[in-house]
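Please check this record.
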Amino acid sequence: MRAMVFERVGAPLRAVELPVPSPGPGQLLLRISACGICRTDLHLLDGEVAIAHPPRVLGHQIVATSVADGRRVGVPWLGWTDGDCPQCRAGRENLCEHARFTGRDIDGGYAEYAVADERFCLEIPGDHPDEQVAPLLCAGLIGYRSLSLCGDAHRVGFYGFGAAAHILTQVARWQGREVYAFTRAGDDAAQAFARELGAVWAGASEDAPPAELDGAIIFAPVGALVPAALRAVRPGGTVVCGGIHMSDIPSFPYEILWGERVLRSVANLTRSDGHEFLALAAQARVRTHVNTYTLERANEALADLREGNFTGAGVLLP
């Protein structure tokens, strides 16, 4: 099978031919039809999130068909948990002490085939095209978990308007929330895109929104946005850091945290998140805006993601 393989930090992915993998007990052999690219993949390429045992096939937003029975399933970042550590027993499998992650510890979807633990394969409702579904499996899921941690916040701000925010804006608007979009200064295309999707305001990340926010989610991996978001939320509001990696957070005055504001991170996802969000996305008629690439163009796709050369999400089509 064709695959794009990570070999070492700082090097581009390499196109190789690999044997089609054989499923073990409890696993499915999957024929991949689409795989979303993700900023986490950039963190892996750059060594900001470590891959312990390269070479590795990246990709953790997989839409595929089970070779054995023809089911269409999605494979997310969380690929395996032990089910027995204190976190798992407490219902926090996203924090499993021995978790394995698709595209980091387990070969992922930048290939024509993959194997995955059947327990962590998500049923995909509806008949949306595969490339439309792929970004829901990480950008959508992490966005959904982040929004859930904001509680019933009515006015929500999204810092960094990429794949996750463009999906979450549709969900939040369907729920009756107001969305405020923050982008890099001068990114008129992203701001226009946010307004097109229903954001009531869009501006630069350094700008103050026209109203106090009840909650904010930081998707951009920029620690300097934490003080900005804290200043934007009302007393009692919540700021959620939605990425797996972020640059250092600068010191900030206590007064912008005071007033029972909450600053927290979100980590990974649970299978329950997956089932709930995919059903909700179908109800809300979420439509992802995708930019598609052939498998062999994976390096180009990742470079475009890094440079912000497209709005919405990027998807590989093996």
Summary: The chain has two domains: 2-137+269-317, 140-265.
